[in-house]
Design goal:
The protein is an all-alpha fold and about 270 residues long. It is about 65% helix and about 0% strand. The chain is built from eleven helices and no strands. The longest helix is centred in the last third of the chain and has 28 residues. It is elongated.
Length: about 270
C-alpha cells in the first residue's frame, strides 16, 4: 500500500468517526458516499470542492490549537454547505473554537443554536455541559453580579436531569457545589457590607436568605454565628471584618465528595 493511499485511509476513518459522533443519525448513505469520494476512493467532486475536505482542514487547525483559522473554515462550511453532512460538525466546532478562545458569550450563542437545530443529536450532553461552562467561565468575584453563577447552576442542573448517565455528571455536581458556595459567599459579602453601613435589618435578611438557600456551603457556620450576633444586637464594631469571605470562585476540584457513584450505576 502506498504512503499516499495510507494517508487517505487515515483521513477517511478520522472524519468518518467525527461524522458518526456529531451527525447522530442525521446523515445516511450519502455521508459514506461523500466521504469515500473525498478520500479518493469513489466518484464525486474534487477534494478542493467538498465540505468534507474543508472539515478535515479545519480539524487539523483545531487539533493544533489554531482556533482562529479553524473557526474561519468552519464558518465557511456553514455558509457554503449548510445542508452538507459535515454542517453539524462545523456548527459544533465553531462553538468550540470560540470557547477555547475565551469568547464565552459568542460560544454560548452557538451552542444554544446547535441544541435548537439538533435537539436529538448524540452530542447534546456535551453541548449542555459546554453551555454551563460558558456561564461558569464568566463567574466574577463575589462583589459583582452573581448572574453567571446562577445561570451555570441552571444549565448544569438541566444536564443532570436530562442525561443522568452522562460522563459529565460527577464534574457537573462538583461545579454546581462550587457555584452554590460562591453564591453563599456573595450573600455573606453583602451582609457584611450592610453591617459596615449599620443597616442591621438588611444584614439579617441576607444572612437568613443564605442559611435558607445555601445551608450546606462553607460559609454557613459563620453566617449562623453572625446572625445570632445581629439578632441580639451585640455586633461589635470591627469584628464583622473577620466574616468577610474570599472574593474568588472556589476551586471545584476541592468538592471531592461530588465524585461518587453516578445515579444508575452499581456500587
Amino acid at each position: 500500500m502506498s504512503v499516499r493511499h495510507l494517508v487517505r485511509l487515515r483521513r477517511f476513518f478520522f472524519l468518518a468517526c467525527l461524522l458518526a459522533i456529531v451527525s447522530g443519525g442525521l446523515a445516511g448513505c450519502a455521508t459514506v458516499d461523500s466521504v469515500l469520494a473525498w478520500a479518493g476512493m469513489g466518484g464525486g467532486a474534487s477534494v478542493a470542492d467538498t465540505p468534507e475536505s474543508l472539515a478535515m482542514d479545519a480539524m487539523d487547525d483545531f487539533s493544533k490549537g489554531d482556533y482562529h483559522s479553524a473557526l474561519k473554515t468552519f464558518e465557511e462550511i456553514k455558509d457554503k454547505f449548510p445542508f452538507s453532512d459535515v454542517a453539524p460538525l462545523a456548527e459544533l466546532k465553531a462553538a468550540d473554537c470560540n470557547y477555547f478562545m475565551d469568547k464565552f458569550s459568542e460560544a454560548l450563542v452557538l451552542y444554544e443554536e446547535f441544541e435548537s437545530n439538533h435537539p436529538t443529536n448524540e452530542a447534546t450532553p456535551y453541548v449542555l455541559f459546554q453551555i454551563g461552562m460558558c456561564y461558569y467561565a464568566q463567574i466574577n468575584t463575589i462583589d459583582r453580579d452573581p448572574g453567571s453563577a446562577i445561570n451555570s447552576i441552571e444549565a448544569f442542573t438541566r444536564l443532570q436531569r436530562s442525561f443522568p448517565q452522562s460522563p459529565y455528571y460527577a464534574e457537573v455536581e462538583a461545579r454546581i457545589r462550587a457555584a452554590r458556595d460562591f453564591l453563599a459567599q456573595h450573600e455573606m459579602y453583602v451582609a457584611t457590607f450592610y453591617l459596615r453601613t449599620d443597616e442591621l435589618q438588611q444584614a439579617q435578611g441576607r444572612l437568613e436568605h443564605l442559611l435558607a438557600n445555601y445551608p450546606e456551603t462553607s460559609v454557613a457556620p459563620q453566617a449562623k454565628e453572625l446572625l445570632v450576633q445581629v439578632q441580639s444586637g451585640t455586633v461589635p464594631e470591627k469584628t464583622w471584618k473577620r466574616f468577610v469571605p474570599k472574593v474568588s470562585l472556589p476551586d471545584w476540584k476541592s468538592f471531592k465528595s461530588a465524585f461518587g457513584i453516578v445515579p444508575g450505576q452499581a456500587e
